[in-house]
Specification:
This protein is an alpha/beta fold. β1 (5-6), α1 (15-24) and β2 form a beta-alpha-beta unit. The longest helix has 15 residues, at 50-64. It has one domain. The protein has a three-stranded parallel sheet with strand order 1-2-3, covered by helices on one side. The chain is built from three helices and three strands; from the N terminus they run βαβααβ.
């Protein structure tokens, strides 16, 4: 069984630093979140530039010997705001 760690657990840190922390903790798998106004990536940027986002994640994963299990896209800043 492989466990993953969420990148948004450290949303106030730079994404590269989060990858380093997750790697040091012994995780080889990370879940990436794109939440409007929160976390490292804005969902609208992921939708508008999917190839660039994939390239950026692939490069970060390679540098830290990590793979990604999920990419959570959450539009809106709360449960009420329309998307």
């Amino acid at each position: 069984m492989r466990f993953s760690c969420t990148s948004w657990s450290w949303s106030l840190s730079l994404f590269e630093k989060v990858m380093e922390i997750v790697s040091i903790l012994g995780f080889g798998v990370v879940d990436v979140g794109a939440f409007a106004g929160f976390a490292h990536f804005e969902p609208v940027d992921v939708v508008r530039h999917p190839k660039e986002m994939a390239s950026r994640l692939r490069q970060a994963g390679s540098r830290h010997k990590m793979v990604f299990s999920d990419l959570f896209l959450c539009f809106g800043t709360d449960l009420i705001e329309p998307t």
